């Protein structure tokens, strides 16, 4: 090696402050990596809940338990809600494609649509809960393991949808304030990854709770 | 111009030191906060241990009633695991990992601060149980139905709910910390510092973080279910509602066994840093050690049900086999350490003594574990003092010895002062003898069938004597902490006298000053092996290839290692000139054209 051939700069001397204290500017963005790791831990959280579901189901003599055969059915409300959530994933991706091309206005439009769809899903879930609680016989979190599982699994999913709605609102406000460009929009990418994850969890829940015989 | 604002600006504003510490996002300060908080909880948890040993010193109930006793061992276990060992390891890693990587800070400094501040808050939640009808009393494992609601509330008061809330919060802190470490390790390594050149402490922190990331959320899910059962009439763990109490054990131990490795892997890393330095040899079998660490991480997820052999609900051969299997990578590590020492020139400084104490005593704890993998033997000693002895041999003789080794080893780096060797050795003797005196007799009590988690025991032949010895040992452990505290107190009042590299070590944290400046490094040695500092000191790398300081006249004067004089302080050739011409500074990729734009934007404070 010739003297001075290699220049290794101490981190704080890097010219681009957005490179942060990092040494490498190749590969995945650090913030996005953080979000993906967080999603990994969320997968394990839902895995724990699903484990409880299959544990109870495997041990039950009859599933759904007697008296609750027709409570949890894929009715119009649930199917519409599912469609809405899947659509919202598509609109989110549409927003990502827009901002990758530098079209901030297009991204904002897509985020507004996604936000409305997400809120709509939460409203429909609340309505579904209200109907089930006024079912005859009432179906609540304390009506046996079936009710406990249903409300815990869908409830935690709903809480995650709410978290996603908050995240979308934040990036939307930042987008409306004129932030984000084709190069700098990692927050949008991170929220998008989270939103897709929430969508996938719902598809797994939907299949498990409503269709798995 | 503005490429190096950190050091000059740091001196331009004044804030109180308290404000600095409360709002810091510096990984070193956060590390010190973690370590101090953890040590505080170590003392609190230790007081509970003394209470337990005081009650058990002789048969009969002398000091506490059974419910107080139940609370004592629950809070003792929870505190020591979640509020002492975990934050202590996180604190050490917080301080050391970015330095060993040659980074300026963690990947997410503010999330790092958040992770820390969750710890005291969740500790407060845990202990506030005493103000709301009594602290949690179902053991640190919180088995249902003891912690649940079957047959009416097993326990009045909010203690267990607050225990759940505290542990969910501290678990979230661990998850965020794990994400931060993984991102830091993958994204912020110094140039040339490939994965297979990373210091073993970093490797062990990485595997620990992966375990945390995937194990803790499962426990969180379990806690949520328990909370729903207790407060909203849920039926997860209640057979009357169609639930299953064994499910809790599955969820708990799916977290709980990786947790064991979360508590011990950082200590493996610490020992692997110390043994080569004090043996004056590179670690024997670096690659084998890395693969052993990774396989412990992977196998750690396949052994959880060995805690549940006696439930009759698990497939015994599978979990027994994997439990034996996981002893193999641990054995490889022992071989590495011993082989490193065998042909080395071993010196017996305090860090090395603690590391050797770790190696010898953890072996006992590990062998106990291999015994427990034998199903018929496990049936015999389930829930006896054998198990208590086993887990304390791995946690006290393992984690605690590792922690003190690390504190003695890195204290000069953190404070710029050397701890007193004589006090250190006094502590080592007291702790070594105390640990064995406390926990070895518990093997015999366990074999004899003494059940754990009971406030009283029958005056059977031998039991009184062994228990009394064990209690004496516990007080010896407590006394052993005093020389350490005195040592730290006295040392911190002395002027800073430690050299940058007092142990003649190998890794990058010793290449900067003691204590390091807020931004860690002016200069990074080139990394060509897993011992970059050794290479630099002994001429294995070209000294001129080092990183260069910020700008002319702002050089951090007393920096860096025992590196040859001429490698330090040379400005980058053409640096200033290039900037003046409006070209990208050296080291900035040409593919990042808008790097200049950021520089030219006026910064806050510049206008003023």
Folded structure, characterized:
The complex is a heterodimer of chains A (213) and B (608). Helix content of chain A is 68%, strand content 0%. With 213 residues, chain A is an all-alpha fold. Chain A has one domain (28-211): Up-down Bundle (Four Helix Bundle (Hemerythrin (Met), subunit A)), CATH 1.20.120.80. The longest helix of chain A is centred in the last third of the chain and has 33 residues, at 144-176. In chain A, 38% of the residues are buried. Chain B is globular. In chain B, helix 4 (66-101) packs antiparallel against helix 5, helix 13 (385-415) runs antiparallel to helix 14 (421-447) and helix 14 packs antiparallel against helix 15 (463-493). Chain B starts with 5 loop residues before the first helix and ends in an 8-residue tail after the last helix. Chain B folds into 2 domains: 23-493, Cytochrome c oxidase-like, subunit I domain (Cytochrome C Oxidase, Chain A, Up-down Bundle), CATH 1.20.210; 522-569, no CATH class. Classes of the chains: A mainly alpha (213), B mainly alpha (608). At the A-B interface, helix 1 and helix 4 of A face helix 6, helix 7, helix 8 and helix 18 of B.
